[in-house]
Amino acid sequence: MLNLERLRVLRAVADAGSLAAAGRELHLSESAVSQQLARLRVEIGHDLFVRSGRRLVLTAKGERLADYARRLIDDATAALDDICRSDDHVTGQVRIAAFATAARALVPRALVSLRELAPQLVVSLDESEPDEAIPRLLRGEFDVVISNEWSDRVHLDRRLSRTALKDDPVVVALPASHRLARRRRVALSELAKERWIAWPIGTLCRTWLP
Fold it and tell me: What is the pLDDT at residue 125?
């Protein structure tokens, strides 16, 4: 039985022409893409690509399998949509990822409401930061991601849709004697040279600071 996720990788490489480009589209490392193709080759028993410079070119059997892959993935998506629409009751599983604050402040109430509206729906929650959760959403590991967005640090892929939930103002605590302490609004750039008490270096929130 062919693995649908490996066929998804094959389709991406066939369309993009390289492991690196397919990896960027699928949010996988180049090594992970290569491993999936190697396993698919073993399953099929035939070479699927040949190298032409830096590009990968499909063999004749690779082209045929890529065409099947496109149809199978489209059919699987259509089948799932059709089954979900034809059922009077909302069933199945919804996998949600949320950053820490939202997982504690927003999600619990939403889950209570969801349980009342769709008691047969199975919901799972994973606490994940946006830079980890959004790539997994694109790979199909999550169905919904609750992400925070500050400035231009979080970019959504064009394949995703976004709904704004709340505004979360940023509050800066300053000593009473500070030159900006009496200001109602302060731009982060005005505090660029200050010493901060903040998140550890390397965390997503820390990268937002000047």
Answer: 92
